Amino acid sequence: MKKIIFTGIVAAALSITACDDSFLDNPSTTQPTSDTYYNTAEEVYGGTGMLYNNVWNDWSDKAFTSVGDVLGGTVSGVAGNSQYNSFYNFNIQSTDGLINSTWNACYDAAGRASVLIQTFEAKKSQIGDKDFLTIGIAEARFIRAFAYFYIGRAFGDVPIVPNPLELTKPGKNLVPRYFQADVLRFAIEDLEFAEANLPEVPYQVGRVSSISAKGMQAKIYLYLKDYANARAKAQEVIDYANANPGRVGLHDDYQELFTSSSAAKASKESLFALQWITAAGWNGANRFMTYAGPAPLLRPAPTGTTAAYSSVVPSIDMLNPATGYYAGDDRRGWSVMEHGFHRDDWVNANFPNGFTYDTTGATDNFKIRTGTRSNIQKYIVGPNREGEPVNTDAHSSMPTFILRYADVLLIYAEAVMNGSGSTSDASALAAFNAVHTRGGLAPMGSITIDQLLRERKIEFAFEGDYWFDIQRQGLAKASAMVAQQERGTYGDDGHLNSFKATIPGSFSSLFLPIPQVETVANPLLLEPAIAYY
User: Fold this and answer.
1) What is the distance between the alpha carbons of residues 229 and 136, in angstroms, rounded to a whole number?
2) Is the whole-model pTM more than 0.90?
3) What DSSP string describes 484-502?
4) Are 195 and 217 in contact (CB under 8 A)?
């Protein structure tokens, strides 16, 4: 634990950005100390800026998709790929690299946030109780809350380290696991502070707000099956959106939300997103297109990448109108590229009149044939061009959405059900149908939990979240949901190579194993969890 959580955190937390136009500018090279720095809002907000970016690199690279979508069955095409395959067939090992990436990124983000919290608190004793220091603490506590929420969902019972500096003291480097409920309570307490101390309107585009904190609390409460609090917090966000429709609400153009980095960054639908910038390359750009983008789109000039591997593609289950996108659901055409898909504005050397997705031949720089005859469209911004830079590794500036307003609406609808399995409540239907009808579908007069879960599957496909909707149903229902999914692919001749996965039959199988390198270094992680509170 000491190695993962603490090493380099203090030094990194003091490598601050000087926010000129963006909080993702390059770090200062002056190596400031807390005694000489954090005297202005610019310096404090520069420090918290890194919490939205490269601390999440290793997780966002492949683990984001593997945990949320490969496990969840919305993504396929990964059989035989050693980095994704264990998630595809539920044969996950504690030595898997993406397990380490998930663990390390969450504790890195939480640890850096904690160091900033401690530093800003100490700074108050030097320069007074400045508002910008309180906002900086609230922002860091929001990010720390998300880190613990994610790691608690992913791994279950895990350590809580509120002050990584304690790990440097003799005998303090071994930390026990705490009950998942306590981990999520810790996250909620951070969010309560964030809600009370962040502004309603983010002080900079892309930053979180008090409304973001309300929405994230609603999401955690729903996961805990605390439906009353989930409903109350979601209602507060909805009330704010109704009163301030220009600040919070659904984005009018769903396709634009996921294919235009400028629109995504400024969208009123985004309540929390990781922020990337192409110029940062491997140190802070969005890498999703590297793995998910289609070769004919990104390999020709002007992008000229050797990547665009189509390593992960929409699953057959997602493309089946009986189990995934409904017939007539516009979100399919906005989220997926299939034969005949065309974008006039996606121009490259081989497609001067706009890119057309063609599956009639083997993959080259003109045609593409994936295992499901499709590619993910979400987070694909097209070729490099003015206003939408894409580098030669196919990295972009597209943000990664963690919490959208659509999520809050569906959280509210589910919370109204209160575990009953269905509802015809007018307020729940209004929230549900706002999301449902945006896809061009007719409003529903009543909804069941299975219909709501399917709506979440469709709305948030390829956004790294659906596995947790399956997981929170409990082992029996989760096993049944996964068993019904078609995770196979089509051969070159169109023959279906069917594959149905099975969740191993124990509750612990719903969680990732703690990385072996961690349990070797800290044997307490192999002991039963204990209470934190």
Assistant:
1) 26
2) yes
3) T----EE-TTS-EE-----
4) yes
pLDDT digits (tens, 9 = 90+) for 298-346: 999 999 999 999 999 999 999 999 999 999 999 999 999 999 999 999 9
Amino acid at 470: I
Contact indicator for 277, 24 with CB cutoff of 8 Å: yes
Mean pLDDT of 57-76: 95
Element (H, E) at 313: strand 313-314
Instruction: Express each pLDDT in 476-508 by its tens digit.
Output: 999 999 999 999 999 999 999 999 999 998 889
Both tokens of residue 505? Answer: 């039959």
The 3-class secondary structure across 8-54, one letter per residue, is CHHHHHCCCECCCCCCCCCECCCCCCCCCCCCCHHHHHHHHHHHHCH
Q: Calculate the CA dihedral of residues 36, 38, 41, 43 and round it to 10 degrees.
A: 90
CA 273-277-280 angle, 5° bins: 130
Helix (H, G, I), strand (E, B) or coil at 532: coil
CA distances from 80 to 67, 83, 120, 293, 377 (A): 17, 9, 48, 19, 23
User: DSSP labels for 94-145?
Assistant: TT-HHHHHHHHHHHHHHHHHHHHHHHHHHHHHHH---HHHHHHHHHHHHHHH
Contact in structure between 353 and 344 (CB atoms under 8 Å): yes
Cα–Cα nearest to 324, from 179, 485, 473, 113: 485
Q: How far is CA 171 from CA 13, 162, 166, 167, 174, in A?
A: 24, 17, 10, 8, 7
Rounded to whole angstroms, the Cα distance separating 293 from 461 reads: 16
Element holding 271 (H helix, E strand): strand 270-274
> What's the confidence (pLDDT) of residue 79?
59
85: confidence class by pLDDT, cuts 50, 70, 90: confident
- Residue 424: left if φ>0, alpha if ψ -120 to 50, beta else—which one? alpha
Q: List CB contacts of 337: < 8 A, sequence separation 6 or more.
A: 294, 357, 374, 375, 376, 377, 380
Question: Residue type at 16?
Answer: I
Per-residue model confidence as pLDDT tens digits over 129-181: 999 999 999 999 999 999 999 999 999 999 999 999 888 888 788 999 999 99
Contact 34, 136 (CB under 8 A): no
| 532 closest CA partner among 226, 223, 117, 189 | 189
